[in-house]
Write a structure and sequence with these properties.
Elements lengths: L10 H17 L6 H8 L3 H7 L3 H17 L10 H21 L2 H10 L1 H27 L8 H15 L2 H6 L4 H16 L13 H15 L1
Length: 222
Amino acid sequence: MNNTMNIELDPTKTKLLKKLISTIMKDGFQHLRMDDIAKAMDVSRATMYKNFSSKEEVIEGVVRVFIDYIDRLEDRTSDDDEESFGIWFQQLFEQSVSLVGKITDVFLKDLQSAYPELYAQLKDTLNKREQQTLEFYQDGKTKGIFNLINEKFILIQDNLLLREIINTKFLVYNQVSIQQVLLDYYQFKKIQLFKADKLSIVDDSKIQPVIDHIVEKFNRAL
């Protein structure tokens, strides 16, 4: 799948694209001109055109950033030990929060309309991640690590509840910080998913730096 994309990202291009992401996730990109893109990237037109020849190449780069990020999720095998379930749970949590906060319906709608092939590639990657996640939950139930709950409900929960509670309006209305919300949601998911006698396999000390990093990015995007 990834081989069908023409763009290759180096650190400079990736840095520029990440500066643009918050803008196009909030308002879409159909209305953006190359001048607007350069402004969002905080570079001159000359610098932007040195790295990207067209608007399509810019959007293809954004899609590549997301696909590469999703593909970083480590592969699992049926022989993994119990501790690996705690590690994978935390990796999924980090990805879920990052993706829900970044891949918006506005962006997906614009992508489907303007660049259907890029949309298909991104959706294919997201669908594969969803299937991989479902298999993880099913494996945990089979091995007696997870509670016997409907794993599809967990996915829906991330897509709907998580999206709602990290919304700025929710945070302001409830007078709660994004850090506290994420810590509470993490604990909520952990207790919901793991059987009581298996909670100890999750090393909570590893999640605080992850949440701190997410919060830092969230605050920069405000």
